[in-house]
Every structure is written in C-alpha cells, then in structure tokens.
Amino acid sequence: MQLPLGLLLLAALTEVGARRVVPIKIQKEQPNGGLLLHRRQTRTPFDEDLTNNLTSGAYFAQVEVGTPGQTLSLHVDTGSTDVWVLGTNTNLCTNSVLQAMYGGCIDTFDRSASSTFARVGRGTDFEIRYMDGSGASGFYFTDHVNVGGLSVDDVQMGYAERSTSAWGMLGIGYARNSAARDEYPSLMDQMHDQGLIATKAYSLYLNDLESSTGTILFGGIDTQKFYGTLKSVPILPDPVTGHITHFNVSLTALSVLSGNPDIDAGTIIAPQSPVPVILDSGTTLTYLPSAVTAPLFAKLNAYDQSGGEIPVVYVDCTLVTSDPSLVLAYQFGGPDGPVVEVSIADIVFDDIKQYVAAGLLTLPSKLPFPKENVCSLGVMTSAAGDVHLLGDTFLRSAYVVYDLSNDMVALAQSNMNSTSEDVHEIPANATGIPLLTGQLAPEVIRPVRDNGAGRMGVGLGMVIGILALMI
Ligand SMILES: *[C@@H]1O[C@H](CO)[C@@H](O)[C@H](O)[C@H]1NC(C)=O
Ligand SMILES: *[C@@H]1O[C@H](CO)[C@@H](O)[C@H](O)[C@H]1NC(C)=O
Ligand SMILES: *[C@@H]1O[C@H](CO)[C@@H](O)[C@H](O)[C@H]1NC(C)=O
Ligand SMILES: *[C@@H]1O[C@H](CO)[C@@H](O)[C@H](O)[C@H]1NC(C)=O
C-alpha cells in the first residue's frame, strides 16, 4: 500500500527530528611528520619523534570556532575536559626556536576575526598541564562551536598565549576534571543543555590502525560498529574525594590467547587483584603496572625498556606472522564483564630498524631474539605510582560508550572498517546505557591449546566463554 506523499514526508521528518545525535568524524593524523603526544614525564624532541612514529598518529576532530566559523583540528582527549585553541599570537605559533622544539602550530584561531568572541573575566587563569609534560596557558573565552554541523553556543574554551603543544585540544571528559579553578559547563554540558543530545554520553570508534578515520557519536550508539552485545561497567570514583573525574574502570582479567605452542598463553590478571585503568584517547600507547607487564612480556618474549631514556618495549616482529591469531583479551568488571580482544598485529610496530640504521638508537645488547627482527610493542610499563592508561593501542579494538550522566562505560569488540551505520539515540533520563546488540562476530578460527589434548577451532563467542571459565 502506498501512503500519501505528505504523510510519508511527515514521518520522515519526525524520525529525523526525534533523533538527537551528533556524529563527528575524527581523523588520524601525523602532524609535523609524526609528532604527537607521548605521555611521559621526561621528554626530548627526539624521544617524541621516535614514539610518534611507533604509534601511527593521533586522533583529531575538526570543529568550527567563532563567527564566521574558523575550522580547527583539535586533538580528541577523553582524559581531559578543557577545549582550548592555539591563537594567531600564541608564542609557539610565532617563534621558530620554540617550533624547532615542539613543532609548528597546526591550526590557529584569530580571535579578532570572530564577532562572537568574548573573553571570560580579565585574568589569565587558563593553565593546563598534561602527563607528558606539555601544556598551555592563557585565558578563557566563550564563543560558538560548530560540532558535526550543529552549532553549540556559549562554549567556554581556553585561549593559549603560551603553549608547548602544537595543537589545541578537544577535551571531552568530566566537567569536574577541568583545569579551571571554577568549574564551568563543558562542551558536553552545553550540547546537552542546548538540546542537541538527550544525554551526556558519546560513543568512540577509532577504527583500524590502517584506517585514517573514526567517529565520535554524541548522544548515540551505532550498532554497525561493534560485534556482540554491549556490556557496561561502573566508573570508579577517586577513593579520597569520592568524585568521578576520569574514565577509570576495573581491569579484572588480561589473557594471552594463542594457538602457537611456543607462546605461553594464559591469564595474567586475576579477578581478586583488579587493576584500575583509565580509558584515554589522548594517550597513544597502553601503560600497565609492572606486576602485569612482567608476566605479559615474559609470555611475548619482549624486552622492557619502558624506563629507559628512550622508552621502548622491544619485541620480535615475527610474533605477528608466526601466530596471526594471537590476541590480548582485556576483561573489565569481573567474570561477566565485557571482553575486548586486541590482535597482535595492532600492537607490534615495525619502526625501530630505521632509527638503528640512522644511528639514532642503540639496541640493548641482551635482546632475547635476533636483532634483525626488532619491532616495538604498543604496551609499556607505567612508572611506579603512575596511573595506568589504556590508550589508542587498546581503544582501536573497542567500541566504547561513555555515559557521563550515569557514570558508566559500555564496551564491545570493534567492527573495524565498517562503512554502514545504524544509529540509536540514547534516550533522555536513561538510567543506564542501552545494552544494544551489534553485528554477528565473524568466525575466528583460533586453535586453543587444551592441556595437551590437541587443538580445536572455536568462534569468538566460544573463546569468550572459555575465558570466563579460565578466570
Ligand atoms: C617518521 O616517519 C615518517 C614517515 O612515516 C618519516 O618521514 C620521518 O622521517 C620519521 N621520523 C623519524 C625521526 O625517523
Ligand atoms: C582509579 O580508581 C582506583 C580504585 O578506586 C583508585 O585507586 C585510583 O586513585 C583512581 N584513579 C583516578 C585517576 O581516578
Ligand atoms: C581494514 O582495512 C585496511 C585497509 O584499508 C586493512 O589493512 C585492515 O586489515 C582492515 N582491518 C580489518 C580488521 O579488516
Ligand atoms: C528528565 O528528568 C528531568 C528532571 O530529572 C525532567 O525535568 C525531564 O522532563 C525528564 N525528561 C524526560 C524526557 O523524561
């Protein structure tokens, strides 16, 4: 039966009007020929270059700031909250000596060209420091920000007068975690308060290492972008203040799954000794405590120089080819919690040899594998007392829904390279993340050692079942 055209149109309009979601595309870039944030206390420009090339780029989103809009690429950071921009007169952007150290500014905002620019107060109270030692300072201002084609009014942002970062940031963490003395409504708060999204939640899809784009979907979940069913875990509060400031979740199991009998597969973290980890898109690698990395690196035959002058964990490149089905399985929130598998090919980087050839790096003499096979691993040991971070070398394998209204995250295995979409709005006043089901996981044939009883092929779902039994 055919509906009258008018009715059809009305139906379509209601559909679109009812769905309050804001998708933005994020781009993986290597600005300045590979320079990017490397979160360690000590850093030298060379140190950065090296790590940068290992990690294959950082994630940037394009937004427009001001009236008329000026397009700026900002580094997407779930680990911080302030949105801030480099200005045309920021010291780094006008000084070649500084640029030789920190890189040239990738985009600058001309405040005199925006008719809606308004400085907040008269002070110079914008000051932010990141864990890698970089930072920026200046003052706060408000202006329009266009995110994914939708205008958000009155967004408070930092304007950097001084910066040691070659790009501005799009912090999308908790407002409470802002660098400002006085908490102010974050970009997320404003998007919610101005009705662009029904809840303060977004989904992050970084996509494959080889892919140059991913998405952040504010207010919604795209069921084409993940496998299986989302499972949620609570975000851990700070034990001292009781406040939630970071996307800190409980990592309750880490397992090496492999069909290669030379690999000592098995579970490293046991549920009774969970590790709090922060899901941080602004960090390129993954940093876990030595109690976890020591047994992990032993299984992978990796050589740990995370604490070295040039921090690297060396690994044999042939790990990738000798067993392509080797994965690290991360599980959160206990034996029934979500599991995300990170394939070995996504965390072994073949970038060390060029440095050695160029005389920039001397390999340790005691590498436990042939020097001509040297690669680096995307997992490092965090400094003692430091926070533990799951950065892009974890997040690319996951579809993560961050719900700042209910203090939860939900995770599922990423469906990499997906080009279709099926977007669902997260309803207003939802008391949790809708635990939607995504795509059917492809059959992964991974021979699993079964106490010497031989090999068997299992699908992804079965592997997850086996995992739950093992811990
Ligand atoms: C990093 O990689 C890029 C290309 O991928 C290359 O042009 C650049 O020279 C490398 N940097 C260093 C320090 O080797
Ligand atoms: C993360 O949670 C753990 C456990 O509650 C806590 O010890 C740690 O301080 C938290 N870290 C941050 C940065 O919130
Ligand atoms: C995604 O596509 C790239 C090529 O663009 C390919 O190298 C990569 O293996 C694909 N990843 C998956 C998981 O299919
Ligand atoms: C959500 O809750 C707020 C107050 O808690 C209420 O004002 C609002 O109408 C509710 N919205 C919906 C869609 O239920």
3D architecture notes:
By secondary structure, the protein is of the alpha+beta class. Helix content is 18%, strand content 34%. The chain is built from 11 helices and 30 strands. Strands 14, 15, 16, 17, 20, 21, 24 and 25 form an 8-stranded mixed sheet that branches. Strands 2-3-9-4-8-7 form a 6-stranded mixed β-barrel. Strand 29 and strand 30 form a beta hairpin. The N and C termini lie far apart (56 Å). The N terminus and C terminus are likely disordered. The site of one 2-acetamido-2-deoxy-beta-D-glucopyranose has 5 residues, from helix 2 and helix 3.
Keywords:
alpha+beta, 471 residues, binds 2-acetamido-2-deoxy-beta-D-glucopyranose, disordered C terminus, 8-stranded mixed β-sheet, 6-stranded mixed barrel, disordered N terminus, globular
